[in-house]
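Postdoc handover notes: sequence design on the structure in folder B. Input tokens:
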């Protein structure tokens, strides 16, 4: 234990010694006066006078020694003060201020400055400054010899000059002349074998203020001060890093739990509190299994595996039931926490709550059963950006209607009706999506599709043709698996032309669809098609004739069109 009263005891001893010398000197003066008045033999008087003079010389020497001891005592007291700072504070500002006060006291300098090397840039930066009145010096008073400071920082050797104005090493330097610098003392701060800063002290009035003794003393002082400063800087760095890590862990959206080698919980961030609905104050410091029994039951094999193998486990999904909430779906990753020797000292557990995500995915999958995936992809992330309107472009329209369904519905119960209808509609919808078409809508027993919107395809007429043939194939496949009284067929019509495509409806409910006479013509062709028949307009046939087999049919009269329409029956692909 450090004896903090030692300097005070030395001061008291020195004061008592000085008082004794003063009293003894006064006694000798009194004896000298008495001898001078004595009328004895001259030889006796002369001898006594010589002895008295010798005693006075001894007293003078003793007084000088006491003065030297007093100076050394002050120096030791200053060094003791630094040692006290090292052991009592890790606050960097407090340490720097104490060091500066000790420098002024130790050297008697008018001013002192302390500069530290920036770890990132390697440049010296001012960190503290004091004057003889122990006041902090404003930045406007930082008028020092930069060349001396840089020389000491570069060489690591201290510099002392009794009069910089006359010193041939420095008298030509602009800072020495311009700032009228005289007595200068500058020593390096060393920690871990490298220069970490510089202590600079000066006096702009007095010369011969500093000696080699002051240089050596301040160098010794700087060695201890450097340790105190480095410890404080490291503590500040660690504190800042810890605060940063705490903020990072607090802001992470994933729950983070860390345990030590005894499986005590050392970290439980805010996201973990939110996911598990348990406050960190009741968790940190407790054993993992005791504090979180639900996770213990689910994750115990994984925790043991990570501790034994030292390898992480990534993306383990599980469903948990918590007292404070409904079913919880978690994705958990576990990693070992290792020390410098690669020994596992704990486990980090990262929890991602997938409950809402899985619910949204389920809703999205359900939504896709009502709306084409291509339309879903086209939807903006911000609902406010979804607006009514459309644009004119070329599309291929396909209408596929189930023939004979009205009569079929009269002969079967509703349950059978819906079951059979859904199977046929599923064939039509899948055929459209297989060719990257857009499933516009399902109108009762009719499948409506468009191609080339919103996804552009240069071969959109051929895609529509292949879709129609796939519908025929799908229906044939159904007929092999259901009773003959459930056999139905599609009548299909296909046309190409310009239409207005976009969001049609109201702000409350809108559909992505196509409107135009070309769409109406496809609908009319579907109405004219026989069961199992695919009708193409003349324009469609001309666009796909190199890829298909078809036969020309007599022109047909179509409602809403003045002239008969040339049509082809699609027979298959070449």
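Designed sequence:
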């Amino acid at each position: 234990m450090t004896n903090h009263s030692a300097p005070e005891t030395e001061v008291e001893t020195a004061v008592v010694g000085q008082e004794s010398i003063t009293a003894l000197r006064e006694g000798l003066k009194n004896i000298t006066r008495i001898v001078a008045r004595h009328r004895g033999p001259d030889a006796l008087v002369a001898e006594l006078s010589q002895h008295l003079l010798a005693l006075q010389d001894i007293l003078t020497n003793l007084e000088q020694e006491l003065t030297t001891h007093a100076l050394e005592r002050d120096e030791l007291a200053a060094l003791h003060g630094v040692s006290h700072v090292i052991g009592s504070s890790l606050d960097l500002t407090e340490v720097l201020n104490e060091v500066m006060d000790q420098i002024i006291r130790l050297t008697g300098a008018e001013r002192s400055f302390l500069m530290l090397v920036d770890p990132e840039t390697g440049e010296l930066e001012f960190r503290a400054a004091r004057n003889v009145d122990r006041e902090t010096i404003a930045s406007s008073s930082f008028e020092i010899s930069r060349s001396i400071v840089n020389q000491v920082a570069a060489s690591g050797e201290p510099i002392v000059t009794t009069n910089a104005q006359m010193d041939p090493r420095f008298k030509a330097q602009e800072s020495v002349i311009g700032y009228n610098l005289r007595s200068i003392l500058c020593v390096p701060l060393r920690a871990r074998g490298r220069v970490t800063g510089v202590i600079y002290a000066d006096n702009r009035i007095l010369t011969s203020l500093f000696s080699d003794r002051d240089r050596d003393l301040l160098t010794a002082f700087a060695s201890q001060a450097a340790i105190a400063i480095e410890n404080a800087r490291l503590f500040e760095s660690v504190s800042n890093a810890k605060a940063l890590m705490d903020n990072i862990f607090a802001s992470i959206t994933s729950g983070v739990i860390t345990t030590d080698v005894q499986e005590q919980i050392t970290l439980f961030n805010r996201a973990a509190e939110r996911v598990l609905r348990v406050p960190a104050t009741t968790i940190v410091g407790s054993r993992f299994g005791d504090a979180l029994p639900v996770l213990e039951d689910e994750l115990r094999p994984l925790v043991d595996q990570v501790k034994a193998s030292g390898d992480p486990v990534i993306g383990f999904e599980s469903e948990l039931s918590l007292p404070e909430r409904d079913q919880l779906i978690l994705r958990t990753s576990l990693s070992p926490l290792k020390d410098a020797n690669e020994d596992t000292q704990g486990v980090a557990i990262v929890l991602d709550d997938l409950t809402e995500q899985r619910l949204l995915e389920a809703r999205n999958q359900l939504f896709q059963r009502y709306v084409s995936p291509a339309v879903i992809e086209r939807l903006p992330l911000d609902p406010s950006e979804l607006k009514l309107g459309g644009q004119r472009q070329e599309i291929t329209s396909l209408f596929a209607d189930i023939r004979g369904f009205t009569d079929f519905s009269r002969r079967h119960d509703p349950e059978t009706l819906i079951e059979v209808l859904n199977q046929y509609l599923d064939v039509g919808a899948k055929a459209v999506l297989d060719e990257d078409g857009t499933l516009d809508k399902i109108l009762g027993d009719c499948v409506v599709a468009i191609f080339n919107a919103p996804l552009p395809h240069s071969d959109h007429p051929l895609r529509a043709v292949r879709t129609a043939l796939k519908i025929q194939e799908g229906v044939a496949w159904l007929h092999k698996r259901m009773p003959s009284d459930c056999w139905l067929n599609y009548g299909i019509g296909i046309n190409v032309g310009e239409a207005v495509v976009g969001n049609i409806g109201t702000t409350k409910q809108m559909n992505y669809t196509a409107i135009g006479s070309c769409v109406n013509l496809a609908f009319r062709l579907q109405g004219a098609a026989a069961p199992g028949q695919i009708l193409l307009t003349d324009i469609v046939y001309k666009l796909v004739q190199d890829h298909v087999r078809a036969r020309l049919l007599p022109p047909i009269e179509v409602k809403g069109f003045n002239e008969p329409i040339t049509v082809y029956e699609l027979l298959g692909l070449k």
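Context for whoever picks this up: The first strand starts at residue 111 and ends at 117. Don't rerun without checking with the PI first.
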